[in-house]
Write a structure and sequence with these properties.
With 454 residues, the chain is α+β, with helices and mostly antiparallel strands. The chain folds into two domains: 91 residues, no CATH class; 351 residues, Cytochrome P450 (Cytochrome p450, Orthogonal Bundle), CATH 1.10.630.10. The protein is 44% helix and 10% strand. It is built from 18 helices and 16 strands. The protein has a five-stranded mixed β-sheet. Strand 1 and strand 2 form a beta hairpin. Helix 10 packs across helix 12, helix 14 packs parallel to helix 18 and helix 16 packs across helix 18. It is globular, with a radius of gyration of 22 Å. It binds protoporphyrin IX containing FE.
Length: 454
């Protein structure tokens, strides 16, 4: 049986299609693949490398197959791209194609130095109906001067000092979640721990009432899936987009009449250089903070725990050498790369990277998960080494859009993982690592479920 098209999974070919292997990033298998009729494109051939047309994987991606449900390790595929095609053109759904940039220094160039714009949604998604647009027009998708104005307005809430004040509350949340699980003797680490911790923290920072938080999670899941490049999932995500916008406008209305001690109130009251945000910008900002604020941290806590469970010697060091905790969290960030790809960048002008010229206006994706495993920067990149030094990973990006929430994420990850292993020194997997299902979609990487015994 031929599987359904998996358009948002990257299927790639290096070498003439007749002879070359096609490697699927989802299942890691190579061919045979069934090609869609090629979309006419004069850039399909470049310097002897033929770039894959949208491909349909073989039976491995029938809707019910395990490979379709889970998303195993993409690192061998990235290693091959770094070696053979470090700037590599792929097709995504929604009629988009993009260039994957996979080497560490090239990703730094894309994020920090090169002539790129973050205004993807403004330039490429102008067709989106007006009512949906505020959710995509946020600071991650903005260039200066808007980017600087928006970032300045929220940055105060995320400084290391401001975040340090939340330490006690974070510890209480971790302990409450683990107390609840203790009597059961087991938990799904994703749903019962890695998700509720950062979701509660960011929801409290924003003043979102407890009863609304899980609802929000359902919406963001649909929104994230919709942004993963599949047309079907994009359309299916539309109601969630509408509901979340409607909810956020309601929340803003309530904070206008009843100000609180939260970021939404601060945004509404903010007057930076005499420049207030308009309501659409507040909606976009809250949506970004919610999405960025927990989807990624959830990945760090769950993938980081899994990595330690799979490396007993490193786990022993984590438990017995507290002086290693800072570098351990950095190494878990590098090793797991919870945000696998940076946001879409657009080339402002033709730009040459690794000998390949990307035309003006094309979309570029810096692959953080690949940069963090680049052998030219990290000796033995596939080894988890909690004492790794130096460790200039790109898990939080680089340059002007460097993660605003990095201090918050580091502290949450640190408290969550140390508390877990301190309270449950016999913590172990309740299933084999192979049975752990991984999240689908392009950007966020982490287990979809992680069953552990306490
Ligand atoms: C382990 C957890 C996290 C990881 C791995 C992560 C990763 C990243 C990365 C790679 C970027 C830059 C993307 C790019 O340049 O395209 C980014 C931006 C951002 N992150 Fe995080 N993040 C994490 C947690 C958080 C948290 C807790 C917040 C807090 C709300 C947050 C808020 C943001 C914001 C607002 C931006 C946009 C900054 C800008 O455009 O100037 N992140 N994050």
């Amino acid at each position: 049986m031929i599987g359904r098209p998996c358009l948002y999974y990257l299927c790639a070919s290096a070498g003439p299609r007749s002879e070359g292997t096609l490697v699927c990033i989802v299942c890691g298998r190579s061919g045979p693949f069934i090609d869609f009729p090629a979309v006419p494109d004069d850039r399909q051939q470049h310097e002897g490398i033929e770039y894959a047309a949208p491909s349909e994987c073989h039976a491995s991606h029938s809707p019910t197959s395990p490979a379709r449900r889970s998303r195993p390790i993409p690192y061998p595929f990235y290693a091959r791209l770094r070696a053979e095609a470090p700037v590599y053109r792929i097709r995504l759904a929604l009629w988009l194609s993009a260039w994957l940039v996979t080497r560490h220094d090239d990703v730094v160039f894309v994020l920090k130095e090169g002539p790129f714009s973050n205004e993807f949604s403004k330039q490429k998604m102008a067709w989106l109906p007006r009512r949906f647009q505020p959710l995509t027009r946020h600071l991650l998708n903005a260039d200066p001067p808007d980017h600087i104005r928006l970032r300045t307005l929220v940055s105060k809430a995320f400084t290391p000092r401001a975040v340090e004040r939340l330490r006690g509350r974070m510890q209480d949340i971790c302990d409450e979640l683990l107390d609840a699980a203790q009597s059961e003797g087991r938990l799904d680490l994703v749903q019962d721990y890695a998700l509720p911790l950062p979701l509660t923290v960011i929801a409290e920072m924003l003043g979102i009432p407890p009863q609304d938080r899980r609802r929000f999670h359902a919406w963001t899941k649909a929104v994230v899936a919709g942004g993963s490049g599949s047309v079907t999932r994009f359309v299916l995500g539309m109601p969630a987009l509408l509901q979340s916008t409607h909810y956020l406008r309601g929340l803003i209305g309530r904070r206008r009449s009843e100000p609180g001690e939260d970021i939404v109130t601060a945004l509404l009251q903010a007057e930076e250089a005499g420049d207030k945000l308009n309501e659409d910008e507040v909606v976009g900002m809250i949506a970004l903070l919610i999405l960025a604020g927990y989807e990624t941290t959830m990945g760090l806590v769950s993938s980081g725990t899994l990595a330690l469970l799979q490396h007993p010697e490193q786990r022993r060091r984590f438990a017995t050498e507290p002086e290693l905790t800072d570098s351990a969290i950095e190494e878990l960030l590098r090793y797991t790369s919870p945000l696998e790809l940076a946001a879409f960048r657009l080339a402002r002008e033709p730009v040459t990277i690794a000998g390949i010229t990307i035309p003006k206006g094309d979309v570029v994706l810096g692959v953080l998960g690949s940069a963090n495993r680049d052998e030219s920067r990290f000796p033995n990149p596939n080894t988890l080494d909690l004492a790794r030094d130096p460790n200039r990973h790109l898990a939080f990006g680089a340059g002007a859009h460097f993660c605003l929430g990095a201090p918050l994420a580091r502290l949450e990850g640190r408290i969550a993982i140390t508390t877990l292993f301190r309270r449950f020194p016999d913590l172990r997997l309740a299933e084999t690592a192979k049975e752990v299902p991984w999240r689908r979609g392009l950007f966020f990487r982490g287990p979809a479920r992680l069953r552990v015994l306490l």
